[in-house]
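can u do me a favor
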C-alpha cells in the first residue's frame, strides 16, 4: 500500500510541476507578444533653422474615459524647416517612465505616422530602424505659406511586430493623438 501511495504521490508532484512550469510562459520564445505601451504623454519638440523653438504636449495622465487630455497648440512660422523629436512618457507611474528609448530600441516593431490636415506643413521622418525603415521619433517639418484657419496634426504610434511595412493601417495602435497646428507670422 505504501508503494502505491508513493507512486501516486510522485505522479501527482510531477504533474503539478509540469502545470506550474507551463503556466510561467516560454521565456525562450524569440517573438513574444507584447502588451501595448501605456503612453500618457506625447511631447513634440521642434527647433527651427531660425527663430524660437516650439514644444507641444498632449497629456492624459488619468487615461481614456477620465478627464479630457490637455493639448498644446503648435504654431509654426512660414517658410521654415524645423528639426523635430517625439518624446513618449508614461506619467501614470512615479517616477514617470520615458518610453522613447524603448520604442527606438524596438524600432523594427514600431512606427510613428504624422497626418497633417488644413496646414501648410510637410513632415518627413528622418530616423531609421536596423532594417532601414523609418521610425518617426526624429523628423523634419517644412512649412510654406501662412494659413487662415488652424489645421490638425495627428500623431499615431503603431506596434507592428514582424509586419512593419510603412502602412499605417497595419498593426495595433499604441497611441493616437491630435494637435491643433497652424502656420502664422
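np, heres the sequence
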Amino acid at each position: 500500500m505504501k508503494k502505491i501511495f508513493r507512486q501516486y504521490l510522485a505522479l501527482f508532484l510531477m504533474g503539478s510541476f509540469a502545470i506550474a512550469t507551463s503556466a510561467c510562459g516560454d521565456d525562450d520564445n524569440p517573438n513574444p507578444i507584447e502588451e501595448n505601451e501605456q503612453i500618457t504623454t506625447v511631447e513634440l519638440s521642434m527647433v527651427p533653422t531660425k527663430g524660437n523653438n516650439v514644444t507641444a504636449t498632449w497629456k492624459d495622465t488619468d487615461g481614456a474615459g477620465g478627464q479630457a487630455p490637455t493639448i498644446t497648440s503648435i504654431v509654426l512660422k512660414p517658410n521654415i524647416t524645423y528639426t523635430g523629436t517625439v518624446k513618449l512618457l508614461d506619467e501614470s507611474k512615479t517616477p514617470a517612465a520615458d518610453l522613447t528609448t524603448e520604442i527606438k530600441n524596438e524600432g523594427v516593431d514600431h512606427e510613428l505616422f504624422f497626418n497633417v490636415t488644413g496646414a501648410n506643413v510637410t513632415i518627413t521622418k528622418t530616423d531609421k530602424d536596423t532594417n532601414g525603415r523609418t521610425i518617426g521619433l526624429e523628423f523634419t517639418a517644412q512649412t510654406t505659406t501662412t494659413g487662415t484657419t488652424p489645421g490638425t496634426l495627428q500623431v499615431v504610434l503603431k506596434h507592428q511586430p514582424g509586419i512593419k511595412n510603412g502602412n499605417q493601417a497595419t498593426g495595433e495602435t499604441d497611441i493616437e493623438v491630435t494637435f491643433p497646428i497652424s502656420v502664422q507670422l
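Confidence is low (pLDDT under 50) at residues 1-34. hope that helps!!
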